[in-house]
Design brief:
alpha/beta; Alpha-Beta Plaits; Pectate Lyase C-like; 2 domains; 6-stranded mixed beta sheet; 5-stranded mixed beta sheet; 3 helices; 13% helix
Length: 255
């Protein structure tokens, strides 16, 4: 009988799997293109909040810049960000020429899922037939993203740990120790001592809040606005408290 034919298997085919993923990352929206203006200001922010999002991936937002791409010093900016222990992974927005300059410095172009990045406009045809203007299509109804169940943690969050509740609330029924970081796109509830860092509304939800039965954090942040321990002198330290965003200020209230 003829021998069975074995299928060809690529070397290392069982060593990995590629899967699409969706992640929330911070965006550094550049309002000034000069590294000498951006880097010292960033360094001061991180000095006031040591360890806050250290080694976190970060995208560079280009939509606010109106300069020619040759004036943007991407290599110097990237060197300065890495010196601050920030990990730039790509750019968002900007013109095709600006994104091309970023790519030359090793930065990929990031885009939200399902959104196409505008390419350079094609050359106009030599002649084109006149076309009638069509009425604009009706806007589609807004799609409401399904709400995820809250992430529940019933063990102490140890120093150096980082928990992220993507697209939902985070509930911790134990201690958040100093040096630990809890992050949520929604609210954060800590039914125990909050002694580490808490970041609510991480994807920009300004209605997110932080609740703690024993309020004594290193840092509190909501939708990108934050305050460190030294700025909480008037807060009810050691007592039940709630923190919410009021304009561009964090307001801490006793429960």
């Amino acid at each position: 009988m003829p021998a069975a034919v074995q299928p060809h298997v690529l070397p290392g085919a069982d060593a990995f799997r590629l899967r699409a993923g969706s992640f929330s990352i911070l965006v550094l929206r550049l309002l000034d293109h000069r590294p000498e203006a951006v880097l010292p200001a960033l360094g001061e922010q991180f000095r006031r909040a040591p360890g806050f999002l250290r080694f976190a991936p970060l995208a560079i937002g280009l939509d606010e810049l109106t300069i020619p791409p040759q004036e943007m010093d991407f290599p110097r900016l990237l060197q300065g960000l890495r010196a601050l222990e920030i990990i730039p992974i790509g750019v968002v927005g900007g013109t095709p020429a600006m994104r091309q300059a970023a790519a030359a410095a090793g930065l990929s172009t990031l885009r939200p899922a399902g959104v196409e990045v505008a390419a350079a406009p094609p050359a106009a045809a030599e002649a084109s037939a006149p076309a009638e203007a069509l009425p604009p299509p009706a806007p589609p109804p807004p799609a409401s993203a399904p709400r995820r169940p809250a992430m529940l943690i019933d063990q102490p969050v140890r120093s150096g740990s980082r928990l992220y509740a993507e697209g939902t609330d985070l509930i911790v029924t134990a201690t958040v120790n100093p040096g630990a970081e809890v992050i949520a796109d929604g609210h954060i509830h800590v039914y125990g001592p909050l002694r580490g860092r808490a970041v609510a509304g991480a994807s920009g939800d300004t209605e997110a809040r932080v609740f703690a039965l024993h309020f004594d954090p290193e840092l509190i942040a909501i939708a990108g606005y934050y305050v460190v321990r030294e700025g909480l002198s008037a807060a009810p330290i050691g007592r039940p408290a709630m923190v919410r965003l009021d304009g561009e200020s964090l307001r801490c209230e006793r429960l």
